From TrEMBL:
This is Methylesterase 1. PANTHER family: METHYLESTERASE 1, METHYLESTERASE FAMILY MEMBER. Keywords: Hydrolase. The lineage of its organism: Eukaryota, Viridiplantae, Streptophyta, Embryophyta, Tracheophyta.
Length: 237
C-alpha cells in the first residue's frame, strides 16, 4: 500500500491546519522527514504516525485512513489519498486490493517475500525486496533516500484476509468525508492506470497529478507535494 495523508480540521488560528501524515506498507513515520518540516515552516501543525507493522488488532496498513474516516468523519476536513489504495462503500473493504492483486503478476514483485501469519495462516505479510524498492518504488527518488528506505524497511501487509471479513465502509462515515487523490504519473508500484481506476470506481472531490514522480513523491518531489497538500487543505477551510 502507499502512504496516505489525512488533513485534520483547523485549529483556532484559521490559517493553521493540522496535517496527519500516514505512511504506507513496510515504511514508517520517517518517510515524511522532508515534507513535515516544509509544512511546519508554512505555519501548520504536523503529526507523522508510526503504524503497527501487522495484525488485525493493531493496524490495517494502507486502509487505515478509510477506517479512521469511517469512525471519526466529523474530525476530518479532507482526506488525501496519495497514489494509494482507496476503497469504496459498495464493495468489501478488500475489493480494491483483490482487484490490484488479480492484475499484478507475481514476477512484478521482484522477489518480495510473502509469509503466512495468523490463525490457519489466513494472513500474508510481505517484506519488500531491494530490487522491488529500487526499480518499483524509488526509481526516480534520490539514491540516498533509497538507501534510507533499504535500511529502515520492515515487514508489512495488505491485510486482504482481515479486510474481507469487515463490513463495508459506510456512506454516512467514510463516504461523507471530502476526498482528494494525488496521482503519481511514473509510479510502478501502483501504476497510473490503476490509480485512475480507483478514482473512477469511487470519484473524489479533487484530483491532482505530479509528473515525473515515482511511488515515493515525499522523496522525489517533496516541495510540490507539500504545495498540493496546502492547496487541497485551503479548499476545505
Amino acid at each position: 500500500s502507499k502512504a496516505i495523508i489525512k488533513v485534520g480540521r483547523m485549529s483556532e488560528n484559521k490559517k493553521k491546519q493540522h496535517f496527519v501524515l500516514v505512511h504506507g506498507s513496510c515504511h514508517g513515520a520517517w518517510c515524511w522527514y522532508k515534507v513535515k518540516p516544509l509544512l511546519e515552516a508554512a505555519g501548520h501543525q504536523v503529526t507523522a504516525l508510526n503504524l503497527a507493522a501487522s495484525g488485525i488488532d493493531t493496524s490495517f496498513g494502507g486502509l487505515s485512513l478509510a477506517i479512521a474516516m469511517d469512525k471519526f468523519p466529523n474530525k476530518i476536513s479532507v482526506s488525501v489519498f496519495l497514489s494509494a489504495f482507496m476503497p469504496d462503500t459498495k464493495h468489501s473493504p478488500s475489493f480494491v486490493l483483490e482487484k490490484f492483486g488479480s492484475n499484478m503478476a507475481h514476477e512484478a514483485w521482484m522477489g518480495t517475500e510473502f509469509i503466512p501469519y495468523g490463525s490457519e495462516n489466513s494472513g500474508l505479510s510481505m517484506f519488500f525486496s531491494s530490487e522491488f524498492m529500487k526499480l518499483g518504488l524509488y526509481q526516480l527518488s534520490p539514491v540516498e533516500d533509497l538507501e534510507l528506505g533499504l535500511l529502515l524497511k520492515r515487514p508489512g501487509s495488505l491485510f486482504v484476509s482481515d479486510l474481507s471479513k469487515m463490513k463495508n465502509f459506510s456512506d454516512e462515515g467514510y463516504g461523507n468525508v471530502p476526498r482528494a487523490y494525488i496521482v503519481c504519473k511514473e509510479d510502478k508500484g501502483i501504476p497510473e492506470a490503476f490509480q485512475k481506476w480507483l478514482i473512477d470506481n469511487f470519484p473524489v472531490n479533487i484530483v491532482m497529478e505530479i509528473d515525473e514522480t515515482d511511488h515515493m513523491p515525499m522523496f522525489c518531489k517533496p516541495q510540490q507535494l507539500c504545495d498540493h497538500f496546502m492547496e487541497i487543505a485551503d479548499k476545505f477551510v
